[in-house]
Design brief:
2 copies of one chain form a homodimer.
Chain A lengths: L4 H8 L3 H9 L7 E2 L5 E2 L2 H15 L4 H13 L4 H42 L3 H5 L10 H7 L3
Antiparallel strand pairs in A: 1-2
Helix pairs in contact in A: 1-2
Chain A binds a DNA duplex through α2.
Chain lengths: 148, 148
DNA sequence: TCTTGACTTAAAGTCAGGTTTAAGTTGTAT
DNA sequence: ATACAACTTAAACCTGACTTTAAGTCAAGA
């Protein structure tokens, strides 16, 4: 099965202009052309696009994704380099998850804060609550919000 | 304790120009000025800046953060609205974490892929492995990468 | 008082990651 | 053979979030 740029764009869920832009930026060196110059996407190209999507979700920039793709085009001589890059990116994503979990803790505190405010009709109550009255799970996060 | 824009920027870890930009965009309506027009940050302003940083980390846009800050300036009449916004943002962050965990699974597969390639000197081995030989934990993610 | 560093503003510049436009070409269906 | 949708390119435009620049003002120490 082969696809045009529009069909493949639909399949992976991006605009056709986005795939053309990626091609222009050198991220799609594997895409071939018809006699008339029309892009022809193959089934294996779908896998490459999935890898690009995956790396994009890790927060990697397009120029770094291009470097990875070009390495892959080089063949087996770049296996070590590609492994190192994947390991670094894995660590980066693990860190992003840890950061978001901290953010979630802040939001859980704010949720409690506004629920308590709602129950009393004023934010004065949660704002002025003593450390002892504050549910234990929120003490650390309130300390952090108010500075050292 | 009071701070100038430069001191407060250092304390929260952003450039002074960023705080001036936020002020220009209406995110800092609580910041007062000296006689001569110099911004004077108070201790409670630090808490606001922490809240702004927290909401930024959730992926919220500056214009939406401004709306939240302006609501807070309105006082207790906006408690319900603010609670709803916090709940929505909490859900959004929970979703982001779930998405990143999927990405992490992809990277773990790729890590195994390149480790196996490294051990054999070629990506042919992990690429052509049968579904039965593939470690069970990676079967789902490989299926997803290759399309339905 | 004078110097100096940090402050002020408006406006322009930067960067990433696209999207849109304009003019032209390809390829399929009738 | 012709129509028409979908393709092609280069170049301009857009958005968000800053950053830099230029010209000028404030405030604290010598």
């Amino acid at each position: 099965m082969i696809y045009t740029v529009g069909e493949m764009a639909k399949r992976i869920g991006v605009a056709p202009s986005t795939l053309r832009y990626y091609d222009k930026e050198g991220l799609l060196p594997f895409v071939e052309r018809s006699e008339g110059g029309i892009r022809v996407f193959k089934e294996t190209d779908y896998e490459w696009l999935q890898v690009i999507e995956c790396l994009k979700k890790t927060g990697m920039q397009l120029k770094d994704i291009r470097a990875f793709i070009l390495m892959a085009m080089e063949g087996d001589s770049t296996i070590d380099e590609r492994l190192e890059l994947i390991i670094r990116q894995r660590e980066a994503v693990a860190q992003q998850i840890a950061d978001l979990q901290e953010t979630l803790a802040m939001l859980d505190f704010k949720k409690w804060y506004y629920e308590t405010a709602k129950a009393h009709g004023t934010t004065d109550v949660p704002r002025n609550i003593t450390l002892e009255e504050l549910p234990e799970e929120f003490r650390e996060v309130r300390r952090k919000l108010r500075g050292k």
